[in-house]
Amino acid sequence: MTDPSARLRNITGRRLLAAFGAVLLLFAAALAVELFTLQRIAAAEAEVARLDHAKHAGHMAAAQVREQYIHQAHTLIEFGEGHLGHYAKAVETAHQTIAHLESVAEAPTEKALARQIAELAEQNDRDFRDRVVPVIRAGDRSHIAELGDQLESVVDHVVELNGRLNDELERRSSAARTRAEELRGQARLATIACFALAILLAAGLGLWLTRTIVRRVESLRQGARRIGSGDLGARIELAGSDEFAELAASFNHMAASLAREQAALVRSQKLASIGQVAAGIAHELNNPLSVILGYAKLLRAVPGPHADDVAIIESEARQCQRIVSELLDLARPHRLDVQPVDLATLAREAVDRLDDAGALHGRKVEVIANAPVVVPADAGRIRQVIANVVVNAAQATAPNGKITIDARSEPDAAILTIADDGPGIPADVLAQVFDPFVTTKAHGTGLGLAIAHAIVDAHGGRIWIASSAETGTRVSLQLPASPPAEVSPS
Ligand SMILES: Nc1ncnc2c1ncn2[C@@H]1O[C@H](COP(=O)(O)OP(=O)(O)OP(=O)(O)O)[C@@H](O)[C@H]1O
Ligand SMILES: [Mg+2]
């Protein structure tokens, strides 16, 4: 199944699509404008052709009417009916030519002029047949000249009308030619403008690609190279919310977790080496320490002037024993006796025991938990973690200082937070506070937090500290709700 948010996040893809789409749209618009203008040019040219054809039809009609008159004149000169057969053919042809002219005339003025030519031709034919032919048959020559003039004047009128029709057609034809020429000019301009725009857009797109993609890829490449060469503190800074920013965030996340893993590895190697040394020293020191303590006990039973010195020897030997046993705690793999335990109860028990032993130096510790916070854990070990942290808090706070322990459940884990309003941990100490032997105390061993870390680790949990001079120190430990993966019975 595809992740819908991945589809939504495909910002670069969508941007590229939009940019190339815009260029394509521009080209499509240029093509559409070009096609539309070509269509209009073709229409204007077709109009010119039609008008030329109409002009030709007008000339043909005028010529045929003249031809009709020539046959009439011929008949008048011969003063007989011998030529009437030819005349009839001429009338027929003139009729057809004028009918063609009427069919090609489109505009109202053209149609009106063509109609007038047709009517004059018919009038001329009627005059000839009704007035001239009867006079010839009667052999009356008295009005011949006058009738001939009348017939010719009709033909002259037709020629004049054709001249007007021709002028009208010519005017419209030249207007159509000018329009076609203008359209060609417009088409040229539109094409140049569209292509110039498309080129500008393509150049802008290239620039944008360089800025948003190439540069970002370059930043990623350099960052990945630095991280790959071992600089796990390097971070790739890419603003935005596109895939590159997301990739940069993933790289940064990867570098951070690699750094964490590396620190954990270094830490476990350190602990392993300390463990080897500690095991050897503990073995060698335990026997002489037991002997020293045994003699100190015997000497204490004998009253004398050195009783105080003997007590000091005994106390320091016990301190040595404690260090040795803590070192062994830190070094040997933790064997956990995991049972469901309530962290709030454990915290109260730890605080009570510390109070009884005087380790809190009178500090009050408040345990806040509204309900039991139960997780699978080794009660003794977690109590030890709580004790180590609470002792630190008690040592850091003023006599009337505030120490609180808060336990709460989360869906997959339980969180225990121990907070104090002491002076906080200096940044340089905080950076290595979980390392063994890091201490700022005259009589501290610097093992308390290292041991706490090792125990929480063995539970598959996490421990972290937030500390500042203003807010004091907050130590949080998170224990998983499911039992640790590898648990050895104690
Ligand atoms: N709550 C706290 N407030 C201020 N500083 C603290 C606090 N907790 C720890 N630290 C600092 O962290 C150092 C390391 O603490 P850690 O418990 O590991 O060792 P320690 O307390 O010095 O010795 P140990 O616990 O072995 O007796 C302390 O020496 C102290 O400087
Ligand atoms: Mg401590």
Strand content: 5-15%
Shape: rod-shaped
Which strand order do you get reading across the main beta sheet?
2-4-5-7-6
Instruction: Note the run of SSEs as H and E.
Output: HHHHHHHEHEEHEEHHEE
Radius of gyration: 57 Å
Count of individual helical segments: 11
What helical percentage do the residues reach?
55-70%
Hetero groups:
adenosine-5'-triphosphate, magnesium ion
Mean pLDDT value: 88
Ranges with pLDDT <50 over ≥5 residues?
Answer: 1-5
From the N-terminal CA to the C-terminal CA, the straight-line distance is 46 Å
Biggest beta sheet summary: 5 strands, mixed
Number of strands: 7
Question: What is the domain total for the residues?
Answer: 2
Structure commentary:
There is one protein chain. The N terminus is likely disordered. The chain has 2 domains: 206 residues; 156 residues, Histidine kinase-like ATPase, C-terminal domain (Heat Shock Protein 90), CATH 3.30.565. The protein is built from 11 helices and 7 strands. The chain is α+β, with helices and mostly antiparallel strands and 490 residues long. α2 runs antiparallel to α3, α3 runs antiparallel to α4 and α5 runs parallel beside α6. Helices cover 70% and strands 9% of the residues. The two termini are 46 Å apart. The strands form 2 sheets. Strands 2-4-5-7-6 form a 5-stranded mixed sheet, covered by helices on one side. A two-stranded antiparallel sheet has the order 1-3. The site of magnesium ion (MG) has 5 residues, from α9.
